[in-house]
Amino acid sequence: MSNFIGLIQNENMKIYRRMGNLIMILLLIGFIGLTGILTKTDKTKPVSDNWKQELKAENAAMQKTIKKEPMMKSHYERSIALNEYRITHDIKPVDAKSQWSFVGESPDAIQFILIFTIIVAGGMVASEFSWGTIKLLLIRPVSRTTILASKYLSTMLYALLLIIITFVFAWLWGGVLFGFDFSPGTHLSYANGKVVEENIVWHMWKEYGFASILLLMMATFAFMMSTIFRNSSLAIGFSIFLSMSGTVAVQLLSKYDWVKYILFANVDLKQYFDGTPLIKGMTLNFSLSVLAVYFVLFTALSWLVFKKRDVAA
Amino acid sequence: MSQKPLVELKDVKKRIGKKDIIHGLTFDIYGGEVFGFLGPNGAGKTTTIRMMVGLMSLSGGQILIKGKNIESHYKQAISEVGAIVENPEMYKFLTGYQNLIHYRRMVKGVSKGRIAEVIELVGLTNRIHEKVKTYSLGMRQRLGLAQALLHSPSVLILDEPTNGLDPAGIREIRYYLRQLAEKEGIAVIVSSHLLSEMELMCDRIAIIQNGKLIGVQSTKEFVESGTERKVRFLVDDPAAARHAVSHHVKAERITLGNEYLEAEMEREMIPEVTATLVVEGVKVYGISSETKTLEDKFLEVTGGKEIV
């Protein structure tokens, strides 16, 4: 086991001693910093003391538009229900220019984390081949399986680190810009015609969790491509392309039933908690099973290829 | 060298696709010797080395290191091996020291003191904390040697170890490898295309060509076997000399130069031929005989084609 920790240290050294990977962390911090400044300088007014009247007026306006735009019915119903809940339970809307509102937006950064993690994952095995270092790496008394596992785990730790950096920096920067607030408010969500109260921090971590499923699957996919094709450009390019287009593609194809077996139809688990499933009949358990199958497929293929390959680079 | 061999190759075969790359190599390597691995490009040297260190699987036969099968008992077998396969490619964005730390974490029981020891040994003390990308090829070669020696292996496998070293560096490495073999009883296996190098460094040499073993011989035997040698006579009239020499040597073994004649013959023939030349009235200014070098021998054995 101490051996395995050593291997993780090795992989981490190879990730963090490279300028490119550190620049990605700086870009992430820069992105959050910039978002904060934009929010701060934004013209939206703070929530007034008169917010109950305002919400009532908003609801009345929405009731009217529902009749004109039946397409948007469910969207408006949701907003109306949330507003009514606020009024009856006296829960003031969260001010956009507040620390927790800003932190609550931070899961958006996971799109960047997705790309950065794919870049690291796509180079993980392929780079060892292109550097030629694979030959010295594999002639140690460590099994190839263990080496591959340490590489995979280090990739995931990199993603986790980026998520933690995002959260911590968003909290700090939000505090600096909007003042520290140690009593986060309540988030309201709407599912199956009911309004549910949630702690905003808990809600935010759930958002991270949902968004991380695509991250996990695509990082694993990039890692597999890297192992099979030993070409980091191919692994990175293809994985980023799929991440960007996959979700859109399944939306477009959602009229076909077989689409439910595609990975991208199942990565958004939020559809079962706050929204409607992409295809009728899909359930949380179904999606989890599909995800598990893809995950096992990706990791098993990487493992088999890495274990059996003759190293002739 | 009467003890048990440290490395045993038994009918080792490699087939890639439908092509047989290695056709069954069998030889043993003992502790305390420097063993040369010689062959033209594409002969299968590197493939064989890759199989010896477990980078490639065997299609047939087996390789034992200290009696442990490299395929079925990989960890135990490889623990005894230190190697550089082809070029010593290290992580360029890390320092030399970080590279060694990296490999230290992959084996058990290498102390920090041992790292300092191998750095000292390969003479990198002054530059070890600089990034590898600033190193010359020779320094990378030294760092490669350091990582191979880190875990005190009993078998050291080096592909082209003197590649990129200056003459002083080559002499140093040669001396050092001999020391390792003689003092510590390590089996040192080197492949090289610098044949003159091998002649100076190796105790025994295996020649392979087209994936077949042509022979394993001690370097001394190898060079001295074959009693024929080229003898050059410096003479005033090469044409007359040819006539004289043709009594003893077949015409196709004679070559004429501007002021000399060269003929292939056995050592015992030299006085006889000289006497004939004198009797025939040819003025002889000098006689020189060249012993065959490993290089000549190698060219002879492998047919002189495709040599690097």
Order of helices and strands of chain A: HHHHHHHHHEEHHHH
Rg for CA atoms of chain B: 24 Å
Q: How many angstroms separate the termini of chain B?
A: 32 Å
Contiguous uncertain segments of 5+ residues of chain B? none
How many strand units of chain B?
A: 14
Number of domains of chain B: 3
| Helicity level of chain A | over 70%
Tally of helical segments of chain A? 13
CATH superfamily of the largest domain in chain B, please? Answer: P-loop containing nucleotide triphosphate hydrolases
- Largest sheet geometry of chain A: 2 strands, antiparallel
| Class based on secondary structure composition and strand pairing of chain A | mainly alpha
Low-confidence stretches of chain A: none
Biggest chain pair interface: A-B, 25 and 35 residues
Integer-rounded radius of gyration of chain A: 23 Å
DSSP, total strands of chain A: 2
**What is the SS-derived class of chain B?**
alpha/beta
Please estimate the helix content of chain B: 25-40%
Transmembrane segments (chain A): 21-39, 109-131, 152-173, 208-229, 236-254, 286-306
Pfam family, one (chain A): ABC2_membrane_2
Keywords (chain A): Membrane, Transmembrane, Transmembrane helix
Protein name (chain A): ABC transporter permease
